[in-house]
């Protein structure tokens, strides 16, 4: 006879409560079982002590007699330290594909190019502003020189007029 340690559902509609039972693998989920070895209440918080209750001695006994746990029960047994559960998902599957990596690289290159163009445009604008400022400074010095020249001419004319 093939034995399973599995969950048997109880509780009301939308209010699940599970018994952890040892049953013949051919019997229905909520049907006949050999022994109840614990309970699982998924409505309680994950850190609650009452969420999972196991009779570890009886579980050890049934495991030594060849009972196989279902995946969900194996998670509980792994948390208790009775069995080791290997992770089942493939982390390589979660990585993005080749085409997506190429699109992201192209997008990143376009953004860098756009940022470089903006920086070059900003630098050109700053350079133009600096040139305009130096041109204004040159014009101001020329005006000052013109004023000084006209002041000198006026002073000479005043000197000649006084003589």
Overall helicity? 40-55%
Profile the largest sheet.
5 strands, mixed
CATH architecture of the largest domain: 2-Layer Sandwich
> Secondary-structure element order, as H and E?
EEEEHEHH
Low-confidence stretches: none
Shape: rod-shaped
Number of domain modules: 2
CATH-assigned homologous superfamily of the largest domain: Ribosomal protein S16
Rg over CA atoms: 44 Å
Give the CATH class of the largest domain. Alpha Beta
| Helical stretch tally | 3
Number of strands: 5
What is the CATH third-level topology name of the largest domain? S16 Ribosomal Protein, Chain: A
Q: What is the first-to-last residue Cα distance?
A: 141 Å
How are strands sequenced across the largest beta sheet? 4-3-2-1-5
Can you give a write-up of this model?
A five-stranded mixed beta sheet has the order 4-3-2-1-5. Helices cover 52% and strands 19% of the residues. The model has no long low-confidence stretch (mean pLDDT 87). Strand 1 (3-12) and strand 2 form a beta hairpin. It is rod-shaped, with a radius of gyration of 44 Å. With 163 residues, it is α+β, with helices and mostly antiparallel strands. It contains three helices and five strands, in the order E-E-E-E-H-E-H-H. The protein folds into two domains: 3-87, 2-Layer Sandwich (S16 Ribosomal Protein, Chain: A); 96-156.
């Amino acid at each position: 006879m093939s034995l399973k340690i599995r969950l048997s559902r109880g509780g009301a509609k939308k209010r699940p409560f599970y018994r952890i039972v040892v049953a013949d693998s051919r019997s229905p989920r909520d049907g006949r079982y050999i022994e109840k070895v614990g309970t699982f209440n998924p409505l309680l918080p994950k850190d609650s002590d009452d969420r999972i209750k196991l009779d570890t001695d009886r579980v050890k006994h049934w495991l030594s007699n060849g009972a196989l746990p279902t995946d969900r029960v194996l998670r509980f047994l792994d948390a208790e330290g009775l069995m080791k559960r290997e992770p089942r998902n493939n982390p390589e599957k979660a990585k993005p594909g080749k085409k997506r990596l190429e699109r992201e690289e192209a997008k990143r290159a376009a953004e860098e190019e756009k940022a470089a163009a903006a920086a070059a445009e900003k630098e050109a604008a700053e350079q133009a502003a600096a040139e305009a400022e130096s041109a204004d400074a040159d014009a101001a010095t020329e005006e000052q020189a013109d004023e000084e020249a006209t002041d000198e001419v006026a002073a000479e004319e005043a000197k000649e007029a006084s003589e």
